[in-house]
């Protein structure tokens, strides 16, 4: 995959001293007429290679390969750039595209927590359930925070089954459904910092996680054939690891989920009428949840996606809630709706103006937000597959230019066609979490598509002559810088960790911020600001340039803002602390070399997490050989946005009043209840993902005797 730090290539004509404006791929990296600086080692002309033994120790194995579209790979090059290696022509001339100074391995600069192991605690009884007030709270957090962006479960059916489980101790939902429920609790607990701050010791997300894991392993989830609940479980497991910054584990889990979904045909359009409309749409949304996570994790890791172009024909998710529209009189037929929403709507230029007017007129809902989030993910997925394709470099730079221009237009069309309720601008005040999420995803995509030209200008090795950039190279580099500045505009100037966990998509916020921060630091390092793309342009470096959005002052101010945010987030998250330490270190080096103002920044790096024991709790631990625990912190969370007709009363019984959000005092002395253990016949869950199962609930006398005995034995200390 070729998606980061790219040198704009120039070919020197052997018969003259003229520099060709049309870049072509050099026939050989080693015999190139221009030097390859460490900062340019991610260029599209370079073949993807592995410059280190990734199997040499636990840390390198945990981090694994990080491709050129990963911000971690950008960080690796920025580290070398900030140390001054890129300014030493003799060193640069002796270094290949992928050679780095000793110690600058991918694992050394990664801010993710892949090197930490998950606590391997065991649970005595995986069939225990929390008291209903706690369960209600954790489920509500999940539905408020996660479900709008990842509708993995069919909400109405899951809630009905949930009520059945808690209404009677005799209900036997099956192991797979219980494992799914425990993953929902795990994620809810992870994101519900209010509960976690005030009630550490009463319950822990690791308890729910280990119950889910034990239920899934006892059911041979990996080895048995695939079903929908297995796909849902693996997807939620991948999402949980993502929230933990366990990127490699998350990437593996979403790969399993994608293959299981493909095995069930979720990626293809269904033409039969065996399912009702709600069941059909639930499958569609499950698939696009997998697609979104797979794409996001491929972007974070820089690894090739397992979902290539043309891998699915399933329609886009409907931009409205099915239940709400079925209960209203309207002129929409389901057949017309399902056949109209083609895959890659915005990506296909001939369809961009065919989006019905009623789509843009729809009121805000979680479904409308998810529809446009998926549409954007499809475009960005196309960018990584079509622009940074390993074979594309053999077809010439002109084709790369054309594709960059094409997908920049697609991103602009997507933005122009947003409905009014989802339109975002540079003012984050009073914007909904959905608008903020779309804005961050959009500008992240703009960074990726324009990142190839953001490099130090090419230099002719023998003479040291620096080649001027092409107009395309200048414009594209500026767009990358502007996208980074715009992304940070949607982050408040006031440092508010609560905003990061209630309004922003917390599972991807650090990824987005690191992308933008590394770009800004690289711009400061190479002197890229308004009118200065590595060569002096008197007409653009006038005094008026200071007022431009991408001026030196603006870039410096935005970089400081990003560093302050990373510092604050690092108080409660180990991965953010690592990200701050890296960026802060690079900024100090760059500032010293460039004479930049460093006021307004912390002068010391974030203290180690061991110095903050009062705010951290042990959860992720070092590899067994070190024996040293590295705690992970709690995140603040409280919901700020609810979705009409979708989550405001998710847990409300039709015959009862609205469920109150449980206060802190309700969790003192948490007690748990026990569900009926399941027997061997429950390898296929008794709670079907498509149909209400009131007539198929299994009672204790139907359970396998051996399963009951084993459960009783396991419950003993």
Task: Describe the protein's architecture and organization.
- One of its GO terms (molecular function) is zinc ion binding.
- Residues 644-653 have a biased composition (Polar residues).
- This is Xylanolytic transcriptional activator regulatory domain-containing protein.
- By secondary structure, this protein is an all-alpha fold.
- The chain has two domains: 1-116 and 337-606, no CATH class; 118-281 and 647-715, no CATH class.
- The protein has helices at residues 58-63, 71-83, 89-93, 106-109, 132-145, 155-167, 175-191, 193-198, 205-218, 228-243, 247-263, 277-301, 322-326, 334-340, 357-360, 366-386, 397-416, 433-450, 471-489, 497-502, 506-526, 552-569, 574-594, 705-715, and strands at residues 117-118, 128-130, 616-617, 620-621, 632-633, 672-674.
- It starts with 57 loop residues before the first helix and ends with a helix.
- The relative contact order is 0.14.
- The N terminus is likely disordered.
Helix fraction, binned, reads 40-55%
Sheet with the most strands, sense and barrel status: 2 strands, antiparallel
Number of helices: 24
Structural class: mainly alpha
The coarse overall form would be globular
**Low-confidence segments:** 1-43, 85-103, 197-202, 327-335, 530-547, 606-618, 624-649, 653-671, 678-685, 691-713
Q: Helix-strand pattern, N to C? A: HHHHEEHHHHHHHHHHHHHHHHHHHEEEEH
Overall pLDDT metric: 72
Pfam family, one: Fungal_trans
Organism: Penicillium chermesinum
GO molecular function: DNA binding; zinc ion binding
Biased composition (Polar residues): 644-653
């Amino acid at each position: 995959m070729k998606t980061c730090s790219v040198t704009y290539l120039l070919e020197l004509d052997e018969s003259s001293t003229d520099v060709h404006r049309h870049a072509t791929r050099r026939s050989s990296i080693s015999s190139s007429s221009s030097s390859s600086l460490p900062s340019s080692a991610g260029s599209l002309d370079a073949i993807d290679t592995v410059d280190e033994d990734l199997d040499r120790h636990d840390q390198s194995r945990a981090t694994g390969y990080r491709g050129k579209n990963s911000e971690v790979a950008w960080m690796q090059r920025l580290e070398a750039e900030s140390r001054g290696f890129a300014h030493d022509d003799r060193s640069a001339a002796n270094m290949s595209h992928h050679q780095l100074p000793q110690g600058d391995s991918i694992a050394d600069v990664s801010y993710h927590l892949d090197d930490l192991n998950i606590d391997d605690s065991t649970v005595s009884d995986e069939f225990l359930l929390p008291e209903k007030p706690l369960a209600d709270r954790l489920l509500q957090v999940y539905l408020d925070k996660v479900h709008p962006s990842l509708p993995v479960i069919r909400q109405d059916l899951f809630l009905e089954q949930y009520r059945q489980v808690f209404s009677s101790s005799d209900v036997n939902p099956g192991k797979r459904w219980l494992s799914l429920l425990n993953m929902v609790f795990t994620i809810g607990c992870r994101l519900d910092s209010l509960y976690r701050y005030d009630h550490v010791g009463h319950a822990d997300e690791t308890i729910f996680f280990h119950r889910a894991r034990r239920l899934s392993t006892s059911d041979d989830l990996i080895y048995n054939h695939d079903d929908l609940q297995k796909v849902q479980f693996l997807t939620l497991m991948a999402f949980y690891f993502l929230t933990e910054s366990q990127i490699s584990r998350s990437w593996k889990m979403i790969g399993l989920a994608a293959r299981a979904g493909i095995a069930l045909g979720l990626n293809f359009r269904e033409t039969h009428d065996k399912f009702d409309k709600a069941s059909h749409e639930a499958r569609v949304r499950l698939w696009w949840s997998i697609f979104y996570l797979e794409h996001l994790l491929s972007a974070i890791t820089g690894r090739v996606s397992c979902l290539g172009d043309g891998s699915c024909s399933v329609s886009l998710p409907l931009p409205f809630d099915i239940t709400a529209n079925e209960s209203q009189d309207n002129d929409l037929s389901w057949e017309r709706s399902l056949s109209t929403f083609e895959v890659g709507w915005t990506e296909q230029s001939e369809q961009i103006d065919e989006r019905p007017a009623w789509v843009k007129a729809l009121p805000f809902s979680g479904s409308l937000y998810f529809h446009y989030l998926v549409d954007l993910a499809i475009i960005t997925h196309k960018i990584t597959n079509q622009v940074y394709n390993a074979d594309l470099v053999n077809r010439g730079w002109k084709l790369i230019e054309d594709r960059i221009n094409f997908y920049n237009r697609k991103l602009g069309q997507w933005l122009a066609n947003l409905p009014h309720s989802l339109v975002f601008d540079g003012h984050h005040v009073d914007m909904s979490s959905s608008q903020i999420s779309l804005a961050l995803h959009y500008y992240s995509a703009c960074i990726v598509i324009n990142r190839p030209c953001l490099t130090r200008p090419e230099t002719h090795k023998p003479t040291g002559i620096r080649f001027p950039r092409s107009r395309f190279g200048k414009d594209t580099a500026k767009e990358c810088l502007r996208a980074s500045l715009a992304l940070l505009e949607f982050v408040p100037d006031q440092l508010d960790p609560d905003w990061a966990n209630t309004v922003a998509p917390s599972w991807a916020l650090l990824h987005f911020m690191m992308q933008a921060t590394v770009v800004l630091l690289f711009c400061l390092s190479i002197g890229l600001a308004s009118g200065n793309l590595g060569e002096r342009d008197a007409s653009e470096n006038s005094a008026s340039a200071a007022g431009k959005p991408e001026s030196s002052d603006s870039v410096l101010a935005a970089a400081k803002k990003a560093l302050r945010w990373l510092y604050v987030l690092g108080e409660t998250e180990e991965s953010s602390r690592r990200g701050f330490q890296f960026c802060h270190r690079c900024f100090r080096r760059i500032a010293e070399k460039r004479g930049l103002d460093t006021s307004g920044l912390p002068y010391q790096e974030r203290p180690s997490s061991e110095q903050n024991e009062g705010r951290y709790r042990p959860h992720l631990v070092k590899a067994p050989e070190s024996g040293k625990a590295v705690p992970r912190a709690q995140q603040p969370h409280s919901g700020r946005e609810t979705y009409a007709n979708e989550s405001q009363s998710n847990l409300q019984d039709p015959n009862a009043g609205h469920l109150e959000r449980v206060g802190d005092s309700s969790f003192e002395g948490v007690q748990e209840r026990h569900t009926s253990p399941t027997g061997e016949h429950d390898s296929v869950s008794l709670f079907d993902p498509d149909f209400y199962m009131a007539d198929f609930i299994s009672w204790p006398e139907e359970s396998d005797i051996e399963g009951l005995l084993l459960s009783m034995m396991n419950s003993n200390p």
